[in-house]
Structures are given as C-alpha cells and as structure tokens.
Specification:
The chain has one domain. The chain has 4 helices and no strands. The protein has helices at 4-27, 33-54, 62-70, 75-83. Helix 1 packs antiparallel against helix 2. The longest helix is centred in the N-terminal third of the chain and has 24 residues, at 4-27.
C-alpha cells in the first residue's frame, strides 16, 4: 500500500511530539497548551523529514519539506505575544 510507511512515521512522531511537548510544558508549570503546539510543530518537522527520507518518491524534496515545516514555527512567538497583550 503506497504511502503507508509515510503515514505511520508522520503521524506516529507527530503524536509523540505533541505529548512530549505537553508534558514538558506541564513540568515547567504551564497549562500544557503552548508545549503541545511547539511539540506538535517540532514533531511534525521531524516526522515529515523522516517520512520523506524513507519515501523514495520524496528524496529530492526532503530539505524543502523540512524548511517548509520550520518556517511556520516562527509564528508561534508572534501569536503568543498577540494573545497575551
């Protein structure tokens, strides 16, 4: 089944990143929301990059996928700043 490994890696790491960020944020006495958002973003970057590496049709796009995932993470501090004004 085409795309099965990509999907497993992609969502598996994303879910792990979300829960990891949630727990780290709670460790620092946050409510978990910001940690989950950052964890999901970083987890998504890692999962998409790994999935692209293992999917032979995406090898040439791996760097673009990773950079494309990282750029929106720059919006998190801006959104948090606006939210807390």
């Amino acid at each position: 089944m085409e795309g099965l490994i990509f999907g497993l890696i992609d969502n598996g790491v994303l879910i792990a990143g979300s829960y990891t960020g949630l727990e780290i944020d709670r460790l620092f006495k946050g409510n978990g929301a910001l940690g989950a958002v950052v964890g999901a973003g970083v987890g998504n970057t890692i999962s998409d990059g790994l999935a692209a590496i293992f999917d032979p049709t995406l090898h040439t796009a791996t760097a673009g996928i990773i950079v494309g995932c990282l750029i929106p993470l720059l919006l998190i501090p801006i959104i948090e700043w606006r939210k807390n004004q």
